[in-house]
């Protein structure tokens, strides 16, 4: 998101985050801007019963957890390393100063936050109103749009577990639903990899 040279010039610090480590937890006060240099981070909520609901996954070049930096509220979810990762960290006040000094970057963040609001609204609609197959296809099609992919075959880069986490479904339900979607010609499964199929 923010060019590495720019991060360095504003004093950002690069640090390692081992797999399974929490970067911050739900309810923590936001004090830094975070951007993935390498690896993968997930934002998630956890119920009292221990059930996890994933808000999103973030990989190289992507930032996460920005909304609280602009507001007066604490983190609404937790950030956990899905794999060994390296993260850029920039102090909140310096991050806000950077945006004030760079209109193009500020506008880019506005676009990103708008897309995430759209995704949240889509998630709520899908979970409250639609069956598992529809939830899964909607998620896959959203990911395709995010990648600006126009091919007739789109490779789904999520595991069955990650699809389950993002749609509020059980893994077993995802597996059954993907097989049903395959029988309907909406997806193909090759060597365990799911591909979304589109007509010419």
From TrEMBL:
Keywords: DNA-binding, Transcription, Transcription regulation. This is Crp/Fnr family transcriptional regulator. Residues 15-116 form the Cyclic nucleotide-binding domain. InterPro entries: cNMP-bd_dom (IPR000595), cNMP-bd_dom_sf (IPR018490), Env_Response_Regulators (IPR050397), HTH_CRP (IPR012318), RmlC-like_jellyroll (IPR014710), WH_DNA-bd_sf (IPR036390). Gene3D superfamilies: Jelly Rolls (2.60.120.10). It holds the Pfam family HTH_Crp_2. Residues 130-200 form the HTH crp-type domain. It comes from Agaribacillus aureus. The keyword DNA-binding applies. The keyword Hydrolase does not apply.
């Amino acid at each position: 998101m923010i060019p590495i040279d720019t991060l360095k010039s504003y004093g950002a610090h690069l640090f390692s985050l081992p797999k399974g480590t929490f970067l911050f937890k739900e309810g923590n006060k936001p004090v830094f801007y975070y951007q993935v240099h390498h690896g993968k981070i997930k934002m998630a909520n956890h119920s009292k019963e221990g059930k996890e609901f994933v808000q999103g996954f973030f990989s190289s070049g992507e930032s996460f957890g920005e909304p609280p930096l602009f507001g007066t509220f604490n983190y609404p979810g937790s950030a956990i390393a899905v794999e060994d990762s390296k993260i850029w960290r920039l102090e909140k006040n310096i991050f806000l100063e950077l945006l004030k000094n760079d209109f193009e970057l500020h506008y880019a963040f506005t676009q990103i936050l708008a897309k995430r609001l759209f995704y949240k609204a889509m998630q709520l609609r899908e979970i409250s109103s639609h069956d598992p197959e529809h939830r899964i296809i909607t998620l896959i099609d959203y990911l395709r749009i995010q990648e600006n992919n126009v091919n007739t075959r789109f490779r789904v880069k999520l595991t069955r577990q990650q699809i389950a986490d993002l749609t509020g479904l059980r893994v077993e339900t995802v597996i059954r639903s993907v097989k049903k979607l395959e029988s309907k010609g909406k997806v193909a499964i090759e060597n365990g990899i799911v591909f979304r199929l589109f007509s010419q």
